[in-house]
Design brief:
Blueprint: H1 3-19, H2 24-31, H3 35-42, H4 50-60, H5 65-68, E1 81-91, E2 96-97, E3 102-109, E4 118-124, E5 137-142, E6 151-156, E7 161-169, E8 174-177, E9 186-188, E10 194-204
Parallel strand pairs: 1-4
Antiparallel strand pairs: 1-3, 2-7, 4-5, 5-10, 6-7, 6-10, 7-8, 8-9
Helix pairs in contact: 2-3
Length: about 210
């Protein structure tokens, strides 16, 4: 990529840090790279690969053009909003019984949402802290598989309980990993099956 593209990406990433109140270390975890690599992006010394751009875009529920395009050209003016359903709670800690009772909606700009069937789940517990705080609303895109290292909503214990964990794929089983080291991983195998119901795309938090 040329210097102009590196400048555009650097400026857009800086805006992303400000808008979401995160630092370069947190962005590095989202992108799956080292903090020093993000530093080079910010300083216009290098540019992210498309895989890293896609991970950042997916995490915040944005199109890749948000990162790759001049800000004035990012979006057309669009006042269309949609109501995203909230379906009960999901555990960030010990799994809790599935509660798919409809509890309301969150209104979002349509052009800020990822494609696919989406819904919100409210977090209960702190096993994904500090990545996802307790009482946050996590946007889930319904899908049966996620990439290794991504955060997913998962049904366990015979599809009767739900939890939110980072997925670690092993040869014969899944490790459902907490980000909070005070909590223990959950092992899912043929004797203790788990079903991924969707990928965590981003979260919002009410003050």
């Amino acid at each position: 990529m040329n210097n102009e593209i590196e400048k555009i990406i650097s400026n857009n990433l800086k805006m992303l840090l400000i808008e979401h109140n995160i630092n370069q270390s947190q962005l590095a975890k989202i992108a799956g790279v080292s903090e020093s690599t993000v530093g080079k992006w910010i300083l216009k010394k290098s540019s992210p690969r498309m895989g890293a751009i896609q991970r950042i875009a997916d995490h915040f529920g944005l199109p890749k053009s948000y990162i790759l395009t001049e800000p004035d050209n990012l979006y057309e003016v669009n006042s269309e909003f949609v109501e995203v359903p909230i379906l009960g709670e999901i555990a960030c800690g010990e799994p809790i019984h599935v509660s798919e009772n409809f509890v309301g909606y969150r209104t979002e700009p349509k052009n800020s949402l990822p494609e696919g069937n989406i819904f919100y789940l409210k977090v209960k517990g702190d096993s994904m802290s500090p990545t996802i705080p307790q009482d946050a609303y996590v946007l889930i895109r319904e899908q049966p598989e996620v990439e290794n290292g991504e955060i997913a909503a998962v049904l366990v214990n015979g599809d009767t309980e739900a939890t939110l964990k980072r997925i670690s794929k092993q040869k014969d089983y899944l490790m459902l990993m907490p980000d909070n080291r005070r909590h223990k991983p959950i092992i899912a195998d043929k004797d203790h099956p788990a079903k991924i119901i969707g990928k965590a795309m981003r979260y919002t938090f009410d003050l």
